[in-house]
Amino acid sequence: MIARFLIRIVALAALAYLVLPLVVIVGASLTETSYLAFPPQGLTLKWFGVLFDDPSYVSAFVTSTLLALAATVVAIVLAIPASLALARYVFAGREAISSLLMSPLVLPYVVLGAALLQFGSAIGLARSFEALLVGHVVIVMPFVLRSVLPLLTPEQRALEEASMDLGATPVATFFLVVLPQIRGGIVSGGLLAFISSWINVELSIFNTSSALNTIPVKMFNYVQYTIDPTIAAVSAITIVAAALVIILLDLLIGLDMLSESRRP
Amino acid sequence: MTAPRTTLALLLFAPLAFFAAFFVAPMVVVALSSIIADDGALTTAHYARILLDQYHWDVLWVTFRIALLTTLICMLVGFPLAWYLVRIVRWRAWRRACVILIIVPLFTSNIVRSFGWMVLLGRTGLVNQGLMGLGLTERPIRFLGTETGILIGLVYILVPFVVLTVGNALAKIDTAYEEASADLGVGPARTFWFVTLPLTLPGAVSGAIMVFALAVSAYVTPALLSGGQITVFSMLIFQQYSSVFDFHYGAALSITLLVLTLILVTVAGRIGEGRKPA
Predict the structure, then answer these.
(1) Would the CB atoms of B210 and A259 count as touching at under 8 Å?
(2) Mind telling me how many Å the CA of A81 is from chain B's nearest CA?
(3) Which of A111, A214, A217 to probe the B interface (max B CBs under 10 A)?
(4) ipTM greater than 0.95, yes or no?
(5) Which of A201, A232, A257, B84 has a C-alpha 20 to 30 A away from that of B239?
(6) Can you list the residues of chain B whose pLDDT is less than 50?
(7) B71-80, pLDDT tens digit by residue?
């Protein structure tokens, strides 16, 4: 059928489009030339060596990782009770609270970044790790909410009630019944949260400084003035890391979310 | 179910307190700051400055035009890809590989992805080499510093959102509906238009809204691919906060972008809801 053939062509072209820039960057990071070349001319790992010898890159890498980790943990701790309240109960203001907690998804990050800088300057929080952290928690919390909420179904609620009827305390019920059931949502939401925080520029850029820098902001400031194989090497590391994490996840929990899994 | 007040208070206190302190309060500060003059008096001067300057209207127009085109192209590229993955691919391993290929860019920073396009779209980049090699153009086409360049980059960054939301919606549709439609003698095109598409629409609309909101407020990709030639709205805001240091004016620009985005997102959401399958 012609339609099917056309869809196939468009889809394969789209896949090629998705892969091309990543391949080019990884390739360019291996060039022996001191300017960026693709296809690479010669093969060398020297640009990766340059990175690891530069303490400012190493410290930006550490900052980004700690920030993303902390933001994810705080977001999960805040999102779990919020999802329980939103999924379980009908109360005045429920819709409003739900939209409030989800609104960072559609709020321009630049606007929130500016707001946090301005607000932070007023209360002495600006350009600090804490300032970055609170902003990142706000923007990553919707990811956790969105993946946990759908798991809090009436069936899940019934099991919880059964546990309570059998005499388990609310705390025991939470850890033994509720938590195991929403674990999948916490893992996938937490992972999205971690990554969104790790790669964020728009929000972070307002509260970073030369002493406190995240890896994407550092790269952004660099790329605007110079394009060289060093920056391709940093980029290549982040691409390979992302690919490894995803492949690992696929092996662990299965990412085949687009198959018709609803069929028994 | 109605909840005991104490349970609700216990569950919601921490998340709401956090959002009040670090989300609502900062936004209130910005909103207030946008209507305060340097001497502390209330003023509408910052907004007047935005509204009366043709330059701002031009920037807004460019920003929204880019965002709309991005959303449209993302749907045109993302829908077939989602369809292909959910309905056409029968080989599980290949579909898995494709899903990974779609998610890897999502997990890679905007900087890296835009940087990739800076390299690809340059005068001597692979794209121009390819176009000239195929004889489609005699001399290199200028992509960097043009709206086309920004569009290529933004679509690239945002298309995975469409594939995933539309793909999820498609995967959830019980194919029995389509089979029933076919059994009743309806052709594939009409089945698609009257059965499958309406069922996919809520997913597609939420994907489109997300893409639009992200495109309107995008900063990194336009900044890197515009080469300083094209200004979008988020750049104006960043300039005020980082180099001009006019926080009041920057605040007014922020609120303007925010309000316009929210209006469009709400309107699009209403349209999506209004088209629920009967």
Answers:
(1) no
(2) 5
(3) A111
(4) no
(5) A232
(6) 276-278
(7) 999 999 998 9
